[in-house]
Amino acid sequence: MDFKNNVLNPVGLYGHRLEVDLYLVSARLSSLQTLSRIVHQAGYEVKEVFFSGAATTAAVMEGQAREGLNIFCDIGRDITELMVFKDGLLRDIEILATGGDRMALQLQEELKLPYELAEEIKKSYGLAADPREIDPEKEILIKKNTFYKPIKQRLVAEIVSASAKSICLQVKEAVEKKLSCYEVNSFVLTGRAALLEGFIELLEGTLSIPVRFGRITNPAVPPAIKENSELSGQRCLAYLTCIGMICAALQERMAAPPSGARPAGGALSRALQRAKEIYQEYF
User: Fold this and answer.
1) How far is CA 223 from CA 121, 216, 217, 232, 238, in A?
2) Do 59 and 148 contact (CB within 8 A), yes or no?
3) 3 state DSSP class of 269
4) Fewer CB within 10 Å of terminal CB in the chain, N or C?
5) How many CA atoms lie within 13 A of 234 on its CB side?
6) How far apart are CA 79 and CA 64, in angstroms?
7) Where are the beta strands (DSSP E) in 62-144?
8) Alpha-carbon dihedral of residues 202, 205, 208, 211, nearest 10 degrees?
9) Is the whole model's pTM more than 0.85, yes or no?
10) Segment 182-206, tens digit of pLDDT
């Protein structure tokens, strides 16, 4: 506004020249129309559309440090979302075609197992640390069809850790395309894959910057979680995006003035206020 930079909210300011530096997130119209139609057929109406990554940050980055460069990374089942914030504003987005599902799929392929069994093995015995820490003779028994089959636990760790390392390298490559890692003030990580033993440490070593696991920081969320056993503990990780959408909607509702609300003082007060605004604008 009048050549002033970094004006986060121009409401109430005056000027003759207004320019906007914005980051536009677009989506394919046909996809949005299909989703809207599905919701409508279920008996509901779509009031607003959210970008999933931005919605999640409303739950896990509320009230966090907003100065400098901050990266939010959500490792989902089949995609990974990277969002770069500068001074609290979204500056860039990267979607990687990889996720935590990759580790289970690798186990399924190499050990010739059903996917559901591979996923359970990943959760119970998967490791993102050095597999050499595991006794080479240590075995786990898995039930395949009607009999039990022994598998070396070190082999499971080797497969999972290799997949985890590949994910971390892809994240690093995506980050370095946009900025230098030493510029990053904070790196927040969410997703079930982040709970894998050694994963955060592996990502820290790959990026050479501190990484912390994202926790719900929006004050409106914890009371609701306590009242719902389905969201207790780590279960809420599966619903972070939905929780974030609710947080964003509540914040917007609280910020909006009540319908039909008028400034205090009635018509006279409004007239005086308008006269004051005109005076300040020109003098």
Assistant:
1) 34, 12, 12, 11, 18
2) no
3) helix
4) C
5) 9
6) 25
7) 69-75, 80-86, 89-96, 139-144
8) 30
9) no
10) 888 889 998 888 888 899 999 999 9
> What SS3 state is found at 156?
helix
Residue 40, both tokens: 């409508």
Give the pLDDT mean for 208-230.
Answer: 77
**Distance between CA atoms of 270 and 277, rounded to whole angstroms?**
11
pLDDT tens, 15-27? 777 777 777 888 8
Confidence of residue 258 (pLDDT cuts 50, 70, 90): low
Pairing of strands 184-190, 69-75: parallel
What does 159-224 look like in DSSP terms, one character per residue? Answer: HHHHHHHHHHHHHHHHHHTTS-GGGEEEEEEESGGGGSTTHHHHHHHHHTS--EE-----TTHHHH
Over the stretch 63-83, which tens digit does the pLDDT of each residue have? 665 678 899 999 988 899 999
- Location of structure tokens 């677009």: 26
Question: What are the tokens at 221?
Answer: 């969320």
Q: Closest Cα partner for 121 from 108, 138, 102?
A: 108
- Answer whether 60's CB lies under 8 Å from 217's CB: yes
Angle between helices 115-125 and 153-176 (to 10 degrees): 90
- The residue among 159, 161, 165, 156 whose CA lies nearest residue 203 is 165
Which pLDDT band holds residue 282 (cuts at 50, 70, 90)? very low
